[in-house]
Amino acid sequence: MNWGAIDKYAKSLIKEAGHRIRVSFYTNISVDTKASANDLVTNIDREIEQFFIERITKDFPEHRIVGEEGFGDTIDSLDGVVWFLDPIDGTMNFVHQKRNFAISLGIYVDGVGMFGYIYDVMRDDFYHATRGEGAYFNDERLPRLENTPLSEAVIGINAIWVTPNRYVEHEPLIELVRSCRGTRSYGSAAIELAYVSSGRMDAYMSMRLSPWDVAGGMVIASEVGAVSSTMTGEPLSLLGQETFIVAKPGLQQHILKHHIRLK
Ligand code: 2AM
Ligand code: CA
Ligand code: CA
Ligand code: CA
Hints:
Mg(2+) binds at residues 68, 86, 88-89, 213. One of its GO terms (molecular function) is metal ion binding. It comes from Savagea serpentis. InterPro entries: Inositol_monoP_metal-BS, Inositol_monophosphatase-like, Inositol_monophosphatase_CS. By secondary structure, this protein is of the alpha+beta class. The chain folds into two domains: 3-141, 2-Layer Sandwich (Fructose-1,6-Bisphosphatase, Chain A, domain 1); 150-259, D-Maltodextrin-Binding Protein, domain 2. It is built from seven helices and 14 strands. The strands form three sheets. A seven-stranded mixed beta sheet has the order 3-4-5-6-7-8-9, with helices on both faces. It has a five-stranded mixed beta sheet with strand order 11-10-12-14-13. A two-stranded antiparallel ribbon has the order 1-2. Helix 1 runs antiparallel to helix 2 (43-59) and helix 5 (189-197) runs parallel beside helix 6. The protein is globular and about 50 Å long. The termini are far apart. The relative contact order is 0.13. The protein binds adenosine-2'-monophosphate and calcium ion (3 copies). One calcium ion is lined by residues 68, 86, 89, 189, 213.
């Protein structure tokens, strides 16, 4: 397999998809809801996923593609080459803000993340990494992350997890919010992973993410020394919805030990 060629191919596919998304703002976008009234999807999410899947299945018929909108494959193992695609991560931002959303793509081989891509479409900012070869923000090599104490850490967390919820005890999280330097919530897991990888935030956490939300970002994060895990400190299975934290190594351990009590 010519991995360098696959990397170039993936990058150009993502750039083309980004162009299609920007052009879509001149068309009528139809918004539907999925599991709940706040869970949005548009015709553009579906069209962009189909665009990727048509191209990839034609050019790499033996690869499997797992996408959020369900046009790809359903997998129960990570054997072989698997592309994890979120055509628009941050659909609510896409609909309400027309910015702050990203294309997220990760290419895994027998469960090992080889390539990760996050494309912030409206800013034209491209975060990308190849396993073992470092991570990049556009053409700029991202430096390895230094550890940061909680008192100086900026943490990505959705306020919903600090209210009573069925996944995690919220009181230790209130304490986390009080103890850190500040919190942020960008509404796109991929962009938040990109921000942790590029040192703009020190940690990001969520109680419920899917493989396509994090697969690309985890490859990038790993290349700068950030640790990704579930809230119990295990590696992600990438086979279903899971809890998720990505952070600088000491900070990840501190947060899991002192601020996470799963229900
Ligand atoms: P999405 O926009 O692709 O659906 C929002 O905080 C982040 O969580 C986004 O990355 C969003 O991805 C993701 N997310 C995962 N599952 C979700 C759900 N059921 N409803 C809304 N956002 C979800
Ligand atoms: Ca969605
Ligand atoms: Ca997503
Ligand atoms: Ca999505």
